[in-house]
């Protein structure tokens, strides 16, 4: 079933019943196809919903604007998180889906973090690969055991570890069930990311 949305996206129906769908959120310069293979590998059988970011930075799709690397346009983050929450709601209605679990990388992980902070009803959980706190002042929010896996690179030159830790701590204090791991890698993904993410989905309905 199609539905009206400004987001270019791909939807892959579930092949195994009883598990929540996965919302795939690509990094800067990616598109709606980038994480499909990863999603199918780490979350087999689940429905996959993969939108393309609607902001262009030098022709590269992103989910929100930034002023410089690591310096976000926070008003735009709020606007785009709201648009994404509306997209999720429309997709759920059109396809008969439960609230999804986000799987986001870099810019996609940051917009997923913004959803958790601004629209907690939109997601049932999240895997945040190379995420940082998307706001200088993090909004107060209430989570009831929402499962979040945050994987950070110890040698990541783009995501400061203190900002990843600040996000994890804030979500934990808000009631989320947060697991943060710092792995020996840079910004790119590794086999450890794959293993940890697959474990998370295997242990999560």
How would you characterize the overall build of this protein?
The chain has 205 residues and is α/β, with parallel strands linked by helices. It has a single domain (9-202), classed as Rossmann fold (3-Layer(aba) Sandwich). 32% of the residues lie in helices and 23% in strands. The chain contains five helices and eleven strands; from the N terminus they run ββαβββββαβαββαβα. It has helices at residues 36-42, 74-95, 107-118, 161-173, 191-202, and strands at residues 9-12, 22-25, 48-51, 55-57, 60-62, 66-68, 71-72, 101-105, 125-129, 147-153, 177-183. A seven-stranded mixed sheet has the order 1-3-2-8-9-10-11, with helices on both faces. A two-stranded antiparallel sheet has the order 4-5. Strands 6-7 form a two-stranded antiparallel ribbon. Helix 2 crosses helix 3. The protein is globular and about 40 Å long. The model has no long low-confidence stretch (mean pLDDT 96).
Topology:
Elements: E1 9-12, E2 22-25, H1 36-42, E3 48-51, E4 55-57, E5 60-62, E6 66-68, E7 71-72, H2 74-95, E8 101-105, H3 107-118, E9 125-129, E10 147-153, H4 161-173, E11 177-183, H5 191-202
Parallel strand pairs: 2-3, 2-8, 8-9, 9-10, 10-11
Antiparallel strand pairs: 1-3, 4-5, 6-7
Helix pairs in contact: 2-3
Which architecture does the CATH hierarchy give at level 2? Answer: 3-Layer(aba) Sandwich
- Share of helix, binned: 25-40%
CATH H-level superfamily title: Alpha/Beta hydrolase fold, catalytic domain
Provide the gyration radius in Å: 15 Å
Overall geometric form = globular
Q: How many beta-strand segments? A: 11
**Count of separate structural domains:** 1
For the record, what CATH class applies?
Alpha Beta
Annotated CATH topology:
Rossmann fold
Main pleated-sheet profile: 7 strands, mixed
- Mean pLDDT over all positions: 96
How much of the residues is beta strand, in percent?
15-25%
Runs in which pLDDT lies below 50 for 5 or more consecutive residues are none
Largest sheet: spatial strand order: 1-3-2-8-9-10-11
Classify the secondary structure makeup into a structural class: alpha/beta
Query: Total number of helical segments?
Result: 5
Distance between the termini: 24 Å
- Spell out the helices and strands N to C: EEHEEEEEHEHEEHEH
């Amino acid at each position: 079933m199609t539905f009206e949305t400004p987001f270019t996206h791909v939807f892959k129906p579930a092949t195994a019943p009883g598990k929540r769908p996965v919302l795939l959120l690509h990094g800067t310069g990616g598109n709606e196809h980038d994480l499909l293979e990863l999603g199918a590998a780490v979350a087999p059988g689940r429905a996959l919903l993969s939108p393309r970011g609607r902001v262009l930075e030098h022709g590269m799709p992103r989910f929100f604007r930034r002023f410089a690397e690591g310096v976000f346009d926070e008003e735009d983050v709020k606007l785009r998180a709201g648009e994404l929450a509306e997209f999720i709601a429309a997709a759920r209605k059109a396809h008969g889906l439960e609230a999804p679990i986000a799987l986001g990388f870099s810019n996609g992980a940051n917009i997923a973090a913004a959803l958790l902070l601004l629209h907690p009803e939109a997601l049932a959980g999240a895997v945040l690969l190379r995420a940082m706190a998307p706001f200088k002042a993090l909004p107060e929010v209430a989570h009831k055991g929402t499962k979040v896996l945050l994987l950070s690179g110890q040698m990541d030159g783009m995501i400061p570890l203190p900002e990843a830790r600040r996000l994890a701590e804030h979500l934990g204090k808000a009631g989320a069930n947060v697991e943060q791991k710092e792995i020996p890698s840079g910004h790119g993904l590794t086999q450890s990311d794959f293993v940890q993410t697959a474990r998370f989905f295997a242990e999560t309905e």
